[in-house]
């Protein structure tokens, strides 16, 4: 006789967390339970359905092929369950309840300090949980239900989402003290010395936006990809190690204060990236996201 018991949402959340983190301790931390609670929940799930989902060894957590299939299904089930709550919130006060937003690192430190105080003042019932992660991880979080919306820079392929453009963010070329070309503004992409160009490491979309704006394919091969953050690259430029490209929101936030760096706007046909807020298509909270986008668009 078939069992009438069904997996709980909590068990499915534990399984998803373990898949995402690849480690019992980190998975438990991500869902705010003890490691023993998470491990017991997954064992209960395996007992309930009568199959092994996770092969446990001292050093490695390995999902079985069936385990991978069930995780994929579990993501959809949990996301659908969360949208039940989203529907209720959407019918209530605007921008209230919990909201999880992923923000890319070349936006988060420059835009969030200016918008968060306004959100706290105007929408005190909103509990905004923030995660800073590169564009690829942020879009994956959105698709998998770990994030409700993403603050990112376009163009970027983020899957089947609705993206609301907020504003254009112009790119600037930053020079060490004494190296700024005289009487030249803006800086033409053809005048960039590719052997001196410092850019963020792979995984940061600002690097791709900067290279696309220059329309010089050889820059990708010649530029030095070594900065882990814009603040790190600014310190390298300030020490005379090269030049770099910075977004206008970083300049407006004072990233060049206490340095000898001079910056000039980048010329060319498309010297911008577009800051946007994205969410899953047909989300019940679309009204909230559109309102949040309106607020974000005013704080650059």
TrEMBL record:
GO CC field: protein-DNA complex
Keyword field contains Cell membrane: no
GO function terms (MF aspect): DNA binding; DNA-binding transcription factor activity
Pfam families for this protein: HTH_1 (PF00126), LysR_substrate (PF03466)
HTH lysR-type domain location: 7-64
Keywords annotated in UniProt: DNA-binding, Transcription, Transcription regulation
Coiled-coil ranges (or none): none
PANTHER family: TRANSCRIPTIONAL DUAL REGULATOR HCAR-RELATED (PTHR30346), TRANSCRIPTIONAL REGULATOR OF OXIDATIVE STRESS OXYR (PTHR30346:SF10)
Family assignment from sequence similarity: Belongs to the LysR transcriptional regulatory family.
Protein name in UniProt: Hydrogen peroxide-inducible genes activator
Protein species of origin: Sphingomonas jeddahensis
Gene name per UniProt: oxyR_1
């Amino acid at each position: 006789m078939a069992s009438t018991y069904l997996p709980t949402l909590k068990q499915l959340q534990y399984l998803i967390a373990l898949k995402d983190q690849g480690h019992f301790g980190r998975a438990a931390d991500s869902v705010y339970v003890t490691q023993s609670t998470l491990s017991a929940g997954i064992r209960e799930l395996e007992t309930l359905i009568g199959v092994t989902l996770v092969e446990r060894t001292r050093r490695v957590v390995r999902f079985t092929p069936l385990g991978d299939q069930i995780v994929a299904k579990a993501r959809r089930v949990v996301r659908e369950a969360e949208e039940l709550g989203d529907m209720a919130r959407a019918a209530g006060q605007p921008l209230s309840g919990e909201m999880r937003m992923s923000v890319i690192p070349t936006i988060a430190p420059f835009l969030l300090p200016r918008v968060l105080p306004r959100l706290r003042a105007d929408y005190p019932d909103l509990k905004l949980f923030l995660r800073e992660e590169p564009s690829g991880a942020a879009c994956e979080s959105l698709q998998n239900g770990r994030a409700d919306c993403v603050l990112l820079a376009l163009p970027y392929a983020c899957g089947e989402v609705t993206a609301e453009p907020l504003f254009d963010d112009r790119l600037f070329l930053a020079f060490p003290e004494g190296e700024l070309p005289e009487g030249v503004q803006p800086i033409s992409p053809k005048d960039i010395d590719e052997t001196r160009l410092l850019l963020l490491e792979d995984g940061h979309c600002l690097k791709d936006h900067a290279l696309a704006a220059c329309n010089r394919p050889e820059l990708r091969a010649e530029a030095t990809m070594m900065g882990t953050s814009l603040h790190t690259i600014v310190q390298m430029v300030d020490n005379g190690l090269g030049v770099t490209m910075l977004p206008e929101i970083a300049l407006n936030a004072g990233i060049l204060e206490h340095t000898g760096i001079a910056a000039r706007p980048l010329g060319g046909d498309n010297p911008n990236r577009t800051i946007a807020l994205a969410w899953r298509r047909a989300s019940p909270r679309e009204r909230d996201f559109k309102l949040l986008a309106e607020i974000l668009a005013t704080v650059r």
